[in-house]
């Protein structure tokens, strides 16, 4: 039964199935627009499963991180996120868009963290975007009377780890390595982590980038010494995405007629770097595969740069490379912390309300952005790329090489709006568009061009998975 006196209510109706569930349990509630509610008072619900197909709804404060290791130890079970498709199917069956903290609706066993019951009022998703259900403490206890109470979540600090200075990353990584591994720090951190050396091809390309007299002949010669790289460059140029007239007969042909010197230099560097670390076989179930995500992001950034006014444009090839390697730190995390990486993936799956950097820093003491940028520094990769990776999740970043980081932020969130990538946030501030000299319409046009070429881009991505 709706109670409009306890809290300010709004005249918006609940989905019928939610109202019926609350009324059947005789629970007093009120309705509120999401933007009017303090996020610290919100609850979060997630569906988990075991291998035996047993399912569980876990409810905890939205300001907390669900601690899977703690939950598994307390319940003597091994829980992981219910498949996203299964959750979506259940929501669709009930005509809902978001998951409400109503285990009765789904006829599921439930568990809640004791922190849920300590606040005088709580709010949770109604099943309708933008609308929350408010319950006073007595009503919440009534709703969760059948739920098991288990401490299973950790409060999360609002501090954003990736907003710190690049110069502090090495110290943070060193602390994480000491805490999480048995390795002792040598004179140099990169020796401790046994980071692979750059390939000879990458070293040659880096030297070529800084040579003002370098031309197509020198670039083609470098690429041709690496048969795998040469084949990929030719395949890239022959892709329907670039719609090149006639057959691509050589690396030089690919450079001159289709891709251009700048793009091939950075493409060659990106492909060489990408092959230095073995991609983890494990990844969060909701994420687009690594290379598909990388190629979509790079292609979109290429289009966004074309749409930018000349005074705002960064170097297009480096911006493209920043997109191609934007998630490079994810592979580095797997390389440095293999025993902990599976827990990171499972925790990302069950904490979709939090940014991945917050989850990674809580579990490891470091983030993929920090790891990726640090390794780029060890390899003496151009600063533009280091900052593109390091500050790509900060929409307000206006420091060195800001346009590269801002483009990465924008591209990833545009793709997320269409279910591509690995981040959850789709928020794009107007100020970000303004700094880049772009309009939302121009960015959308660049996105539609990429989506229209989906089949061609997927074929390019498949070249990296075999």
Features:
single chain, 10 strands, five-stranded mixed beta sheet, disordered N terminus, Hypothetical protein af1432, YbaK protein, globular, 466 residues, alpha+beta
**Contiguous uncertain segments of 5+ residues:** 1-11
CATH C-level of the largest domain: Mainly Alpha
- The first-to-last residue Cα distance is 58 Å
Largest sheet: 5 strands, mixed
Mean pLDDT: 89
Strand order of the largest sheet: 5-2-3-6-9
Overview of the molecule:
It is a single chain. The protein is α+β, with helices and mostly antiparallel strands and 466 residues long. It has two domains: 140 residues, YbaK protein (Alpha-Beta Complex); 222 residues, Hypothetical protein af1432, CATH 1.10.3210.10. The protein is built from 23 helices and ten strands. The strands form three sheets. Strands 5-2-3-6-9 form a five-stranded mixed sheet, with helices on one face. A hairpin with a 5-residue loop joins strand 7 and strand 8. Helix 14 crosses helix 19. The relative contact order is 0.10. The N terminus is likely disordered.
